[in-house]
Write a structure and sequence with these properties.
four-stranded antiparallel beta sheet, Nucleotide-bd_a/b_plait_sf, 121 residues, RRM domain-containing protein, 2 domains, Alpha-Beta Plaits, RNA binding, 24% strand
């Protein structure tokens, strides 16, 4: 009985995480691209948040910086819709949990372009 209850919680937690990610994608773009939907189910636990980015960092720069820790599936700098300017943070999606963990432990608190970078899961 206890084991069945635990598996329900795990399944529910996974479903809630997926729905949250899907809702975030819809809110950001107004539509859900199929590739992002597939990636959100496949790589949910390997996303990391990167804060404290300088204004000159774009998606390509973010990919280049974090690719030394493993395969980067997607890297996105979050921008203002009206101006297109960076909000100073981004999301990096790795192909594996180990790569994400290495990136967090190596990059969190590092000085990058005169700004302190905050990296967490």
């Amino acid at each position: 009985m206890i084991k069945l209850f635990t598996s329900r919680i795990t399944s529910r937690t996974i479903n809630m995480a997926f729905c949250s990610r899907l809702g975030m994608l819809v809110k950001q773009s107004g539509q859900v691209p199929m590739a992002s939907m597939i990636n959100s189910t496949r790589y949910m636990s390997s996303n990391i948040f990167v804060g404290g980015l300088s204004d000159d960092v774009d998606d390509l720069t973010l990919t280049e910086v974090f690719s030394s820790f493993g395969e980067v599936v997607e890297a996105r700098v979050i921008t203002f819709k009206d101006t297109g300017r960076s909000k100073g943070f981004g999301i990096v999606n790795f192909s594996g949990e180990d790569s994400a963990s290495k990136a967090v432990s190596s990059m969190n608190g590092k000085d990058r372009g005169g700004k302190l970078v905050h990296v967490r899961k």
